[in-house]
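pasting for the record
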Amino acid sequence: MPTPTVRREQYADYKLGRTPAPDPLRVQLARFPELAEVLGVPLHRVPGWEAHDILATLARRVRPSLVVSGDTDLLQIV
């Protein structure tokens, strides 16, 4: 079952047609918080919001900003 998010509450079919992330990626993502802590990289989590929403908020508040990603969801913030 998908994690509850603001977008899913507003639009039940959000990401309906997408394939799940591959298992190797899921394993890597699960370990990312530990890696970020070891490297001293701040980790921002906001319950109910997705990563691209948090990145967009931070980019608006911190100027100048540069966000580089291959995640097509980030196109929503352009």
